[in-house]
Task: structure prediction
Amino acid sequence: MPKSKRAKVVHLTKTQKKGKELTLRLYANTRECIPQYPYIYVFSVENMRNHYLKGVRAELASDSRVFFGKTRVMAKALGDSPSNEPQPSTSVLSAHLTGTCGLIFSHRDPPSLLSYFSAFHPHSYPRAGTVSTRAFTLPSGLLFSRAGEIPISEDVPLPHSIEPTLRKLGVPTRLVKGRVELDEPFEVCKEGKVLGSGQTTLLKMFGIAMAEFRVEVRAWWVRETGEVEVPGGQETNSKDVTTRGVVEMDMGGEDGEFGGFDENDEG
Result:
């Protein structure tokens, strides 16, 4: 039967793409910050979590600005060669802008910022596709909410309403007088193995936060010396390092996808 021409979906709201606008804004804001701050840091993120990155931005808000957007836009703003870099050797930082990374424009010196990030590594629940950092097994008998991770005197038994969900996830539980029990231990995950969605759901259900959010500073630019340094005390300049992966970019394109924060991803 042919499709009825009368059955049409009418959208009452219309949104316009902001790709070009966001790209130009990120480029302009990055360029604007370069002469205003004595240090520019390239940082990478492991086990990315938005709320933790927003916490970093809030912590650094008094003397820094954080950009976490498209790497090729930020690399273009820093310059992709010595001929178009806004400050001496800023194009060298472009070589480090690969993967999940961003820029920090700051008045804080490297020892201060490195010390802050070395102490900041909160834990969160893992996501599917990540590697397990430890083994976790549900013990036999009556199941508690933390499955033996804390003393039983401080724990509470699992509510009976969760039992169907556990069985759907492959856990051979059974209800005994309204209590959730296991006849034998059930291995949820092994150390060093890739986690699936069912495993991460079980880990979150029992409060096992094994993913560690980390920020690593890859390199930084010092305005006073015009040099780019990396952890370990090494220095590089535009003659030592070539920009990798920086391609010619059409600033008028509509490719404006950003990770981490909304809009221009700045702090």
